[in-house]
Amino acid sequence: METSAISLPICRSWFCPFSSRNRIGLSAKLIENQSPPAGHRRWIPVASVCLLESPDADSLLLTRRSWRMRSYPGLWVPPGGHCDPAEPAEIAAVRELCEELGFGEDVFEQFKRSANETLRPLCAWEAAFPSDAPPTSHQLVVYYTAQWPSTLSNMTSPQQLLNLNLQEDEVCAAAWLPTSVLTVLINDWSCCSQYWREDNTISDMSVARTTFLPSSAVVNALTDEVWCWTAVSRSWNRVPLNQLICGLTTSEIPNFTANALNSSKVGPSPLSTGTLYAISEWLSIRNHSGR
């Protein structure tokens, strides 16, 4: 795939800790001292992720991060990870896709061969974790969309879904989410984002989660069945959405630390905010193209 400079929409969370006043103070010190303090960098790592479309372009594949991950444990995100040294971002996206889902080298090569036609840059997201405390993880995430290679299964029936071999130290489940479900999730995210646009600060977060933020009841009531593969079942099964995914403001969101220690007690969890932003961009392009 040819590599060239492109312009991408870029965003970060409305409650990103790096948009707080403390970050402004740090920036001023960097300018004054001309060198970053210990533990800080002038650059941030780049990660590439891949929103994989179903053959009919009506669904996206998301994975659930292992509960033992140090950042974003248990959240639903696209397959992805850090770029290797000198590795093009688009190749890193499909490499991580194949590694996390357990696709063989032959599938990876098919993705690479068809990349010019099927792989498209979508947007970028400045990610920081955690969002309500001094962040331990900071990276720029580049999102790509990938069409399912025509030479592989067309997935028109359960028997044609490719078996997965999840990279279980990083991924514990995968699910196909149709646009009807994605639209509800994006509406929930948009309502939540509106709160932060109205001059609220990160110090308000703990109170906001329990009092002021819009309700995620619509998401939590979704019983639409989606195709899901888990590290436990090792097969594709139809599962009600609200057993897998909850809204951003759900008070019953599982305790991530507890689940990291006891992954047998797993409830629904939300999509990451960066994932929701990328899906909103994908839906916008899809709607404008008339699909």
From TrEMBL:
Residues covered by the Nudix hydrolase domain: 42-199
GO BP annotations, alphabetical order: NAD+ catabolic process; NADP+ catabolic process
Gene3D superfamilies, A to Z: Nucleoside Triphosphate Pyrophosphohydrolase
Keywords associated with the record: Hydrolase, Magnesium, Metal-binding
SUPFAM superfamilies linked to this entry: Nudix
PROSITE patterns linked: NUDIX (PS51462), NUDIX_BOX (PS00893)
One cellular component (GO) term of this entry: cytosol
InterPro entries, A to Z: NAD-cap_RNA_hydrolase_NudC, NUDIX_hydrolase-like_dom_sf, NUDIX_hydrolase_CS, NUDIX_hydrolase_dom
Single GO term (MF): metal ion binding
This protein's record includes keyword Heme: no
Cofactor(s) this protein cannot do without: Mg(2+)
Keyword set includes Transcription regulation: no
Name of this chain's protein: Nudix hydrolase domain-containing protein
Organism: Paragonimus westermani
